[in-house]
Design brief:
339 residues, alpha+beta, C8orf32 fold, 2 domains, 6-stranded mixed beta sheet, 4-stranded antiparallel beta sheet, 11 helices, 18 strands
Length: 339
């Protein structure tokens, strides 16, 4: 690749920082959403036809992409048992490249058969379907492979990429989406899937996205280099939940999931909100291993969309601390409080 082209690509990505849905505040997605809903009885057996049906009556790329994204999130079921099977096999063969390649080849056939015939898949299938339907509509969309963190992920075994999502180019800027996590919630005990759309993963803020998404190719952070978390920072970060994407644009502090502090030391929590809230909506749920209680922070300050909390632990011990905004569970931390 010529040096000048390489340079331009670097510059383009460097200028994409903080691209998000707020760029399209003037767009009403009602028509796109209604088209996606009207196509609910259509299946994935004829993707060119489906893409045309979803996009042909919409004039902007972002509305066309929205219809595609909404259809995928509303019609494709997350096959959690298939995800677990793939995870076990990849863990088993991680030190045997020949067996791993053989498994990946066989698994991809199963994956796409289930996707196209039964509309069940895992993250790779979601990302593939969004990309392919977008390609058919002449929208530039990529699959991003990397690491994803949820409350059920064992980070001690997070040594192989385990998640895929999408980056889409709209109006010459790149945006991030996660159709898998947006579509609903799989039950890890029963393997049953519940469709429960979360709009927060559509054109999400890259800074919040980076808390629980770590791409293999770091350009897909869509952040300046100094803003990109290292893999170790990603592993040490707090757990944030799907509801965080409905309430926050960024998560600033605490930076780590596990924290060691002294008794009566001031702990600071910092966030940027998507929309203004009142202080009485903010609470902490604190569990000391014997009981949990819901309490108010020592201090809650809201300035515009900036939210800052303070809390002091008066007794030593080990605590799980959960942030809630209203009834929405936002994030979790642990604190070991020493004397």
């Amino acid at each position: 690749m010529p040096k000048i082209i390489t340079y331009l690509i670097v510059v383009i990505f460097a200028c994409q920082s903080n691209a998000q849905i707020s760029d399209f505040g003037a767009i009403n997605f009602k028509k796109a959403d209604s088209i996606a809903l009207a196509c609910k009885t259509d299946d994935a057996s004829n993707l060119p036809y489906l893409s045309h049906k979803l996009t042909s009556n919409l004039t902007t790329d972002v509305e066309q992409f929205r219809a595609i994204y909404m259809w995928v999130c509303g019609n494709i079921e997350n096959d959690y048992s298939l995800y677990l099977k793939n995870s076990r096999k990849r863990q088993k063969f991680q030190n045997d490249s020949a067996k791993l390649n053989d498994w990946n080849t066989r698994f991809n056939k199963v994956l796409f058969r289930k996707l196209l015939k039964h509309e069940k898949t895992i993250c790779t299938g979601y990302a593939y379907l969004v990309k392919e339907l977008s390609r058919l509509a002449n929208i530039n969309c990529e699959i991003v492979h990397g690491f994803g963190r949820t409350s059920t992920i064992n980070i001690d075994r997070l040594n192989n990429p385990n998640h895929s999502w999408n980056a889409v180019q709209l109006n010459d800027k790149w945006y991030l989406c996660d159709p898998t996590w947006a579509s609903g919630i799989p039950n890890p005990k029963t393997f049953q899937f519940k469709f429960q759309y979360n709009d927060g993963f559509f054109l999400a803020d890259p800074q919040l996205f980076a808390v629980n998404h770590h791409p293999i190719d770091e350009k897909w952070f869509l952040l300046e280099e100094h803003q990109r978390p290292t893999f170790n920072e990603f592993i040490e970060a707090p757990v944030i939940y799907g509801k965080a994407y409905k309430n926050l644009s960024t998560h600033s502090a605490p930076k780590k999931m596990h924290n060691i502090i002294t008794r009566n030391e001031k702990v600071i929590f910092k966030y940027q909100l998507l929309k203004p809230i009142s202080t009485d909506q903010v609470s902490l749920k604190i569990d000391n291993g014997f009981r949990d209680r819901k309490t108010k922070p020592t201090s809650t300050v809201i300035k515009g969309k900036s939210l800052t909390l303070e809390y002091r632990f008066e007794e030593t011990g080990f605590y799980d601390v959960h942030l809630l905004i209203g009834d929405d569970l936002i994030s979790t931390y642990t604190f070991k409080v020493k004397g």
